[in-house]
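Next comes a concrete protein, fold included:
___
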Amino acid sequence: MGLIEVFRKRFLLNLLVHKELRVRYRGSILGMIWSYAKPATQFLVFYFAIGVFMQMNRNIENYIVYMFAGVVIINYFSEAFGNCTRSLVGNQDLVKKIYLPRELFPCSSVIVAIIHFLPQVAILIIGALVMGWRPGVTNIAAVFAGFAIVTVFALGLGLLGAALNVLYRDTENFVDLILMVVTWASPVLYRTHMVEDTLGSGWLMTVYNLNPLTPAVELFHYGFWSATEGITDPVPPHLVMWSVIALAVSFLFLVIGEATFRHFDGRFAQEL
């Protein structure tokens, strides 16, 4: 049972994904085109508002690529984690009436988040190419590594959040508060060395780096921003080490999330 059972129920998983997408775009004329229009607009707004008007391009070369690379991966985490948390409550009729592995609902929410993540990456790639993006093998590998870390981390937290949200509906609001600060809790709009300059290299900096989103964002920076024209910044120190630790922490949260989900699984239909 559990997550392993999800792989055996791929047909049901596919149906849930299509259901979520149909509900999301019901009555929409443009449909999935909005998945491209929104990040493209966001990219242009960031370019002019922050890069040009606030002159951040003077402080960080190709700042728009640097920032948007972080924004894209954080947007993915936010959608995956938030939708996972609401997945059981949002599908309560199915949970109460049909027996199926309940992990299908959080997993389908992650897949929907991936579907919306891909257009954002496409816009990021186009913007990076304009800035002279010439990636090597290690840059591409870093992007996939960052994606893997965030996927595992978001699913683990999402399983935990979905289970708790059935029992305590305040969980959904608490998760929304967390998602409000994740952009500032990782180096999306600023450089990591700015944090170290303030916190020093002691235990506070270690705690900052233990957040899996921090190495994941830096991996996206290395994958996209560092490979653009004119960037000569070195790889953040110990990025490989912190990335491995981030993946381990993410899997730990996945184990905790799945264990909590299975523990309360028998109460879901009754509580809903």
Notes: The chain has one domain: 3-271. The two ends are 21 Å apart (CA to CA).
